[in-house]
Amino acid sequence: MSALEAGARRSTIMDTNSFRPEHAAALDAHTRELTARRQRVLGESYRLFYREPVHLVRGSGAYLWDADGRQYLDMYNNVPSIGHAHPAVVAAVHEQMSRLNIHTRYLHERILDYSDQLLATMPSELDRVMYLCTGSEANDLAIRVAREATGGRAVIVTREAYHGNTELVSAHSPSLGSGQAMDPDIILVDPPDGYRQRVDDLGSWFARAVREGIERSERRGVRVAALLMDSMFSSDGVFPATPGDLAAAVAEVRAHGGVVIADEVQPGFGRTGESFWGFGRHGLVPELVTLGKPMGNGIPISAVVAQQTVLAAFSDRVPYFNTFGGNPVSIAAAQATLRVIQEEQLMQRARIVGDQVRAALVDLSARHPLIGDVRGAGQFTGLELVVDRDTREPASAAALDVIEGLRRRRVLTSVAGPEGNVLKLRPPLAFGSEDISWLIEALDESLTDAAIGG
Questions:
Q1: C-alpha–C-alpha distance, residues 308 and 126, integer Å
Q2: Rounded CA separation 385/401 (Å)
Q3: pLDDT by residue (tens digit) across 241-263?
């Protein structure tokens, strides 16, 4: 009997909107053969989206095409942050690959140039950068640095957070479900959910939750090392909070000897529209910042940006080397991605287009009682579906029906939150005003179908 069959809690990010074997009978013969072959060679840990998986073969900007030539609107994938197959990134990678690709134990100017460019987007206190290949590795290293710098061990994360899949970081990613053991010293806190908490001062409420978690840990003899947070609380259900709402919690962490790790894999690189970094939207200066594959538009590259005074306790004692973290080809992709974001003013466009999307969703809510809340910042929106607006009971089943309805109308996205009832709308930054009508029409029809059980 599997863990899931035995009643273990499903992974909210892996299992909620996923293909399962019982869906296979409804598939055409070719898709059924591909799913069976995938399971046979990749194993059962892998997940596919949708009851009817999508077979994608090409992408451009905010669009994808399947094997039958059908075009889709991508409302989910932030890894190709500036758009699928962006020509600037393709050209930069091709040019560098044709000359050299080697690890970082040799001198190479490109990594130094990019580091200066990247650090220029950060507060001056953040003055060191280390390169890796994935966001998981970046968060893994950041936790190690935080523990070394503070002498503490406990890491605070929100209740449905996802920060990666190394052994260390998986143990701080509760959204992976009860099949994944949590770190025994983890401090779990509820996210700053302004929709359900109904408190007058969300910042004070969140700070109190953080303080109480730290105090519980201290009573067990375990000091805090870090607050590790994605400032959009993406996997928790997309909670942007009001700028300033996180300051009191950060102060509590520092008062107890811990540091702040800002996980910018999802909110970073201008996505929130109000600041180049999610932490900047809240006026914060973290001790450590982690970045992931969106920095290279999907090419494997990640980074830890740090304050030198915090990094020193680790770097003065532990030599660190990631064989292909920061290799010249990945750095070329990152340089091209950063240049496009800045030159094409994608952060400013994210704010404008994101506001337009949320305004259209609010209008849509007048016709659809399933919509309980619309929230977000920039090109990052959470659409929460509820059974009843007064009780705010999560409409989990309806949310999955809406996701499948959108897929049939060739709009791709997924769900977030502990009940899987929040649509997570996080398109490539190439998504523009001209794409909004496609999204809204598909949502309108899908919500109508879900409301009548279709």
A1: 7
A2: 11
A3: 999 999 999 999 999 999 999 99
Range name among 16-20, 406-410, 448-452 with the lowest pLDDT average: 16-20
Q: What is d(CA 309, CA 61) in angstroms, rounded to the nearest whole number?
A: 40
User: For the chain, how many residues are written?
Assistant: 454
Per-residue pLDDT tens digits for 320-360: 889 999 999 999 999 999 999 999 999 999 999 999 999 99
**206: closest CA among 233, 182, 234?**
233
The better pLDDT of the pair 22, 3 is held by 22
Q: What is the pLDDT of residues 355-375, one digit of tens each?
A: 999 999 999 999 999 999 999
Nearest of 246, 192, 159 to residue 382 by alpha carbon: 192
94 phi, psi to nearest 5 deg: -60, -45
Radius of gyration of the chain (CA): 22
Place 27 in a pLDDT band, splitting at 50, 70 and 90: confident
Tracing tokens 């001198």 back to the chain, one arrives at 107
User: What is the C-alpha separation between 330 and 302, in angstroms, rounded?
Assistant: 9
- The C-alpha atoms of residue 325 and residue 323 are separated, in whole angstroms, by 6
DSSP, residue by residue, 242-297 = -TTTTHHHHHHHHHTT-EEEEE-TTTTTTTTSSSSSHHHHTT---SEEEE-GGGGT
Contact 137, 325 (CB under 8 A): yes
Integer Cα distance of 425 and 409 in angstroms: 16
CA distances to 79, 157, 369, 373, 417 from 383, in Å? 21, 23, 12, 6, 11
Task: Output the six-digit token pair for 429.
Answer: 């930054």
The Cα–Cα gap between 311 and 376 comes to 32
Give the Cα separation of 112 and 328 in Å (integer): 10
Phi, psi of 320 (to 5 degrees): -130, 135
Amino acid letter for position 153: R
Do the beta carbons of residue 170 and residue 180 sit within 8 Å?
yes
